[in-house]
Amino acid sequence: MSKEKEKKLVEAITPMDEDFAQWYTDVVKKAELVDYASVRGCMVIRPYGYAIWENIQKNLDAMFKETGHENVYMPMFIPESLLQKEADHVEGFAPEVAWVTHGGNQELTERLCVRPTSETLFCDHYSKIIQSYKDLPKLYNQWCSVVRWEKTTRPFLRTTEFLWQEGHTAHATAEEAQEETIKMLNVYARLCEEYLAIPVVKGRKTDKEKFAGAEATYTIESLMHDGKALQCGTSHNFGDGFAKAFNIQYADKNGKLQYVHQTSWGMTTRLIGALIMVHGDDSGLVLPPKIAPTQLMIIPIAQHKAGVLEKAAEIKDTLSKVARVKMDNSDKMPGWKFSEYEMKGIPLRLEIGPKDIENNQAVLVRRDNREKIVVSLEELESKVPEILEDIQRSLLEKARTAQITKTSIAANMEEFNKILDSKLGFVKAMWCGDRACEDSIKEAAGATSRCMPFEQESVADTCVCCGKPAKKLVYWGRAY
Amino acid sequence: MSKEKEKKLVEAITPMDEDFAQWYTDVVKKAELVDYASVRGCMVIRPYGYAIWENIQKNLDAMFKETGHENVYMPMFIPESLLQKEADHVEGFAPEVAWVTHGGNQELTERLCVRPTSETLFCDHYSKIIQSYKDLPKLYNQWCSVVRWEKTTRPFLRTTEFLWQEGHTAHATAEEAQEETIKMLNVYARLCEEYLAIPVVKGRKTDKEKFAGAEATYTIESLMHDGKALQCGTSHNFGDGFAKAFNIQYADKNGKLQYVHQTSWGMTTRLIGALIMVHGDDSGLVLPPKIAPTQLMIIPIAQHKAGVLEKAAEIKDTLSKVARVKMDNSDKMPGWKFSEYEMKGIPLRLEIGPKDIENNQAVLVRRDNREKIVVSLEELESKVPEILEDIQRSLLEKARTAQITKTSIAANMEEFNKILDSKLGFVKAMWCGDRACEDSIKEAAGATSRCMPFEQESVADTCVCCGKPAKKLVYWGRAY
């Protein structure tokens, strides 16, 4: 391939500052994460995108098991009558579900919806298997796909079908349910910060923004590079609302029947969208080492020269003990390979050519800050894990700094609008607790309440919107 | 719990010789593998059933990755027009699919079927991403659920929705596609024999029994305890039929356009049904150690006595290094625990009580043959893995013997019917190659051709049905 063609490949992404949405679409396609499918709003998750999901899944699933949860599988269909059992829930979901009306060549006597979420199925099952306090708690999780008939869709961020996990638990007491709700929110926060290097704000959703059927919804919110907010995961406390609708009762130690208290919590493939928009740059994806399918790519230089491929293979064997390593010895030009793996966000590149071999060294290039590090061959095995750890730490730090920079305080709507007009980001502002003010902020500034953070401060005495006495600090923002 | 009640629990399973179908249903329910769902023919896979599936998945997925396959995810919906692109395929599947006709509150302009299998989606994707010989082979796999609108259903064996994996590959040449087809059949056979301890017969399906759209279907067939056959996995060579229907072409080294050659292969949750029906007995499930979620269950005896629980916990810690171990120190009576874990098919039970501690020993009880083995505490760590390996080996051996015992040879239809009337099992008999004979054997004996085994022998000169010259040895049987 000619130098010019190679250059074109690199230039083919829209710069983020020019058109962030187009940049996102370009990265998603060029890094070969997804392809569009023949069904509106659905995506084909390609091997590289799916490998990222597998890593997210593996780490999250291990945390679920550590905290005593078990995986199960519920049917993908929900009979219409079952979906209707909890009033708020059906009101929230019925308008956006896909309906199966025919099976084989027969019209069904009752329509089935493709699960948009599975509370109703878990409740139906729990009502059959829970009899005594000895059966509690039930700590179940399910990995599956769900369908919500969205009007406008974007890969990973909002798709008609998406992959997720949904935890559903049943407890003897309200206290235990609340403890579980917060415990799983913390598991989510840990996944985001420790593995995805995405800092999050933890808090509670307002009643307007809570899950259909929940008593309280908790959320972790993050900021993307363009200053828009993204909800990364939610955890819901249902109280005994579903238990009453589905008659899930247990006999307590005195033989008295009690309703269970339930929770649910979910995280989705949208996290891959967050990874792209928090860490990516104009050369493409940037992946945190802990979640990268390949952590280090070896690129032999002048590989036709004697000894180069042998040495590269030797290095690959050595480094495979300490990292996820691949080598590209295809006949593409090194420059082309550099661009390709930068686009794919591989954290570290190792270059090894005849001169390096002569000098008993290799060149490492970090994806995050492009730093070149010359390392002697003996030191590679100890240096690579250190550098990977440093990349992981730096990415989180950089994202945390960006989040702080993009977080502002507003005392009134004038300040509020000024912030969102100039740079977007989180706006911290006081709220009186009235739905009317939330509606009016959405109307005026296009911003929604992201959460009432656990770490409450008083940044003003009065509601940013109506001027009445303030009750809560709220994070506001325009959101994906 | 009283002794009598405990006895009842054990007796509550129908003996297999009395009513095999009822025995199966009893095991599936009492071992807590599944629960019935509110949707006809669908199942709730409970934690214990799902943990078995996770073990199957983990081992099979590792073999896929070893052989160079990558996981992807395709949408669960197929537009009707896409399903119709390959004529044989649509004819085979259209009568048994579920149709989505409404999304949100709108009627769709084109019906979508819920995938019964995903050839059409993979082909659609391949037609977009394959351009050159450099893009080949594509070795993709997907873990998901599929839906087929079955009339009569049974947990694991035949359900409206089931979990599976489906591999879909594209190759430059017919030879490579054929090699892949057989390679993956061998992977399946290895999973069955090495992990599930289920011996299989490998062979090719007749044209009547092959997959809709395939040039050739290969299968692994096993025999259940009742003598009925079960297809455990299939691997299909599509030739270039789908490539022509979906226009999947690549430029070869000379720049000439060529059609790709494709394969697909699948294994499902039905394997759990096979595990039950090959190894189970009148006390319930019997699991091969390699696939058992828990390999050894520790049951403290007289656990209120000083030192018992401490010693049991100590043993648990030691054995956890060499096996998947759990301890049940609940307040149920030991006899009840014995029955429960026999029902769940846990390969080994360890009993430890005050007298054992005095004698510095523990009692191991094998699930497969009920052998009691007294082992000194020092030897436990080395003995347990040995015994687990022996159980794994014995189960395969026992199943192999059963299969040989239940395999007979028939030279004519009189012998054929006599065999199936007396004991069921595989009938080895010659076939002329005519569809008419297959149909007539099905009519007369209720048996289908299971496969033309790779290991061909000549057990007669003439077709078992029509008496014309024989072309192939076929395994016949009544099947699930």
Automatic annotation (TrEMBL), chains A, B:
Write down the species. Candidatus Clostridium radicumherbarum
Subunit-structure text: Homodimer.
- Where in this chain does the entry annotate a coiled-coil region? none
The record, for CDD domains, names: ProRS_anticodon_zinc (cd00862), ProRS_core_arch_euk (cd00778)
Q: Which HAMAP family match?
A: Pro_tRNA_synth_type3
Gene Ontology MF terms in the entry: proline-tRNA ligase activity
Task: Give the main location.
Answer: cytoplasm
Q: What is this protein called?
A: Proline--tRNA ligase
Write down the superkingdom of origin: Bacteria
| Comment block on domains | Consists of three domains: the N-terminal catalytic domain, the anticodon-binding domain and the C-terminal extension.
Name of encoding gene: proS
What this protein catalyses is: tRNA(Pro) + L-proline + ATP = L-prolyl-tRNA(Pro) + AMP + diphosphate
Q: What does this protein do?
A: Catalyzes the attachment of proline to tRNA(Pro) in a two-step reaction: proline is first activated by ATP to form Pro-AMP and then transferred to the acceptor end of tRNA(Pro).
Signal peptide limits? none
Concerning its family, UniProt says: Belongs to the class-II aminoacyl-tRNA synthetase family. ProS type 3 subfamily.
Q: Where in the cell is it found?
A: Cytoplasm
Q: Which UniProt keywords apply?
A: Aminoacyl-tRNA synthetase, ATP-binding, Cytoplasm, Ligase, Nucleotide-binding, Protein biosynthesis
The Aminoacyl-transfer RNA synthetases class-II family profile domain extends over: 40-288
Q: What EC number(s) does its UniProt record assign?
A: 6.1.1.15
